[in-house]
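thought: fold this chain, then report.
action: predict
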Amino acid sequence: MMNSHWFKRLSLVCTLLTVVVFVGAYLLQQYSLAHYRDDLFQNGVIMDVGRLLPTKIERIETAKEEEQIKEIIKKAEKQHLKVSISGARHSMGGHTYYPGGVVIDMSSYNRILGINKKQSTIHVQSGATWDSIQKALAPYGLAVKVMQSQNIFTVGGSMSANVHGRDIRNESLGDTINWFRLLLADGTVIKVDRQSQPELFYNVIGGYGLFGVILDVELQVTDDEVYVIKSKDVSVKEFPDYVHRLRNNPGIKLAYGRLSTAPGSLMDSLYVVEYHKTAHKHDKKLMDLKEDHQTFLTSELLNLSRKTGWGKDVLWNLQRNYFFALDGQYISRNNSMRSESDFLLYKNPTDTDVLQEFFVPIDEFPSYVQELKTFLRQDEIDLMNITIRYVSKDESPALSYAKDDMIALVALFNHGKKKEDVEKAKASIRKMIDITLAHHGTFYLPYYPYASKLQLIQSYPKFPDFVAAKEKWDPDHLFMNLFYEEYRDEK
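observation:
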């Protein structure tokens, strides 16, 4: 009897402790989210979300009106200061600031200027986020064609990185842009499209803010369709055939995959999530835009995977089971492009999460993954997640990453902030880039500059033309950032 009573008390204490720990962790996460950006500009020092390149600048100027932006640039030029353009500041390589310079924060320059349902277009200022664009489009039964899988980014920043996403029927974001207005270094504003200004069009898109300030843009949009989710396992060896079949099935509109980074199935296990068009009724509950929910558990599991191999195994199995449980469920196009994002907002004084992205031609994928697996088995870099996407060939932009129909591997790493930790990560990632290049691939430029200058030229052979265009349109280098400072002398 005594033992039973003692056991009940012990169980109650353990339950209460579990609740206290859970609630405490939840409150800590909510506090961290509320203060996530507090340190991104303090005492004149600016950082992006990678928090690896703290840089002293002259000032940040908030832009709300076009004339105000012009005055900010005039004042900076008069003071012989460089200008950088900032949106959500989710690039990680100093693309949005420069030492001693002026940063124009475009996040308040964010109005929706017009929607044309008949022509399926939307006209927005460049500081508008995808979230605000989706909220504007939804009442019209419209949706974005191409964007990242999260909606926290500004359209101007997304244009400057020429992003891609889950859509497999369009190319990159640049493919959906009709025109944009650009404020040049000399103070003039011009309307840029493919026909009238092809050089500017294809250098500004994917040009990281180096040619001027994107003021507003007209985007092509599409119907907010209803999809049914289908999940399946695909072997790495058979993945190229799967992708070719995927592309030939017009009923599949969106798709992405995950490749295991868990020690027990490293680079062996792969599943895909497809979004098939249906004739399902567009009821209000289905079409209403969802918000971030249940990110706490995802965040804690991701945190566990940062520290342990078994944590990666647990996270992989839970993620896979979750997505397979969604099989057969219906979702709107807008909601399929509103993935939770709060769990990605990681901040720690000693370490950081960093993204890198690699692209390889479809048929190179199996041998590429096998070589990566061999390398990762012997390397110590902490690779936490790989998301896979299909990217259509698009050689038009000056800095095109899709020189063929490609498979994109979006890799999430964690490493320390100390100089030796960064250098160690750089050595590992450079080796991964070498493997990528050996398989006729490329890497993506919005992230921390781990790559060597030679690797950049091998991935982007038109980079010298990009530099020449920069010299033509901005000979005094009024618009500058750390990325361009790092790589402009490409030799």
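thought: worth noting. Residues 103 and 358 are 29 Å apart (CA to CA).
final: tokens above.
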